[in-house]
Specification:
alpha/beta, five-stranded mixed beta sheet, 10 helices, globular
Length: 335
């Protein structure tokens, strides 16, 4: 089965072709970072308009790269939510219209399920069951995953997500938008022990997260030390965030008795986090899996793959043209 994946939940337009027998055949992403940087954040109307401009050329690109035609498609998967309503409508409208013209099903996919399953596109790939650390944009969650659609929420952030904390801290340090990757790069040259920052909820006894207090502590530190100390402040912030994410992940593995950890989402590309989790894996004898670096941010490959898994399990597309800007991952059910 050949599935076209369409991702348009926020500020990346992603298209991909996934074949259930041959794997990922082609994928392409256009990021709107440069456009939104001028405004210091995503402007929803501009995001929607840019998705309209990009979705058809990117579709042609992936088909050309794979040497295939529209008539070869068996299904289309698109991000139905959560995300920006207008941006979601662009992808949903395109996917449903194309599917109707080709007389093939259009499958709405949960954006976070796409991230959750994206490490299965890597080699080696994890077997079910596993614990998943989702650190994507506005989401920080720990999930117990028994199979496709079989998810149990273990813990989540009670305020800011890790990705938001990285971006907001970067803005405090004058790194612009989006600042997470720039902060991580800056932190590589800093001394993480120069400043002491809190590790919120690290020892709370549960698996929830909080990053708002850490961001506030950085603000206080910047006001005291100035941006001249920003290299060491960045290093201290990253060390604190990694301590919390890694500590909670290890606790989730202990409490569930599982030996496999999957890390997905944009922050999953952070080198310091990967190094810490890899070290813990060696120390405690568990395995940790990540998506390919190119598939950590929003992309069409994860949507095509998740849609293909749903269809392969017998899920049916309802044919309704709807989007779900707010949609809890825990509410999903098996196909």
């Amino acid at each position: 089965m050949l599935v076209l994946g369409v991702e348009s939940s926020c500020d990346e337009t992603g298209l991909a072709l996934f074949d259930t027998e041959l794997g990922l055949l082609a994928h392409a992403i256009h990021t709107q970072v440069a456009m939104h940087a001028e405004y210091g954040g995503v402007v929803p109307e501009l995001a929607s308009r840019d998705h309209i401009r990009r979705v058809i050329p990117l579709t042609r690109r992936v088909l050309n790269d794979a040497g295939l035609a529209l008539s070869d498609l068996d299904a289309i998967a698109y991000t139905q939510g959560p995300g920006l309503a207008g941006a979601l409508l662009v992808g949903a409208g395109f996917a449903n219209a194309l599917a109707l013209a080709l007389e093939i099903p259009a499958m709405g996919v949960h954006h976070l399920e796409g991230h959750l399953l994206s490490p299965l596109l890597a080699v080696p790939r994890p077997d079910f069951p596993f614990v998943a650390l989702l650190v994507s944009g506005g989401h920080t969650q720990l999930m117990q995953v028994e199979g496709v659609g079989r998810y149990r929420l273990l813990g989540e952030t009670v305020d800011d997500a890790a990705g938001e904390a990285f971006d907001k801290t970067a803005q405090l340090l004058g790194l612009g938008y989006p600042g997470g990757p720039a902060l991580a790069q800056l932190a590589e040259g800093g001394a993480p022990d120069r400043f002491k920052l809190p590790r919120p909820m690290l020892h709370s006894g549960d698996l929830d997260f909080s990053f708002s207090g850490l961001k506030t502590a950085v603000l206080t530190l910047v006001r005291k030390e100035g941006v001249a100390a920003r290299v060491d402040i960045a290093a201290a912030f990253q060390a604190a965030a990694v301590d919390v994410l890694a500590g909670k992940s290890l606790k989730a593995l202990r409490e569930t008795g599982l030996r496999r950890l999957v890390v997905a989402g944009g922050v999953g590309a952070n080198h310091a986090l990967r190094a810490r989790l890899d070290a813990q894996a060696r120390q405690h004898g568990y395995a940790v899996f990540y998506p390919p670096l190119a598939l950590c941010t929003d992309n069409g490959a994860m949507i095509a793959f998740a849609g293909a898994q749903r269809l392969a399990q017998g899920a049916s597309a309802d044919g309704r043209f709807t989007v779900r800007p707010r949609w809890e991952l825990g509410g999903l059910t098996p196909a």
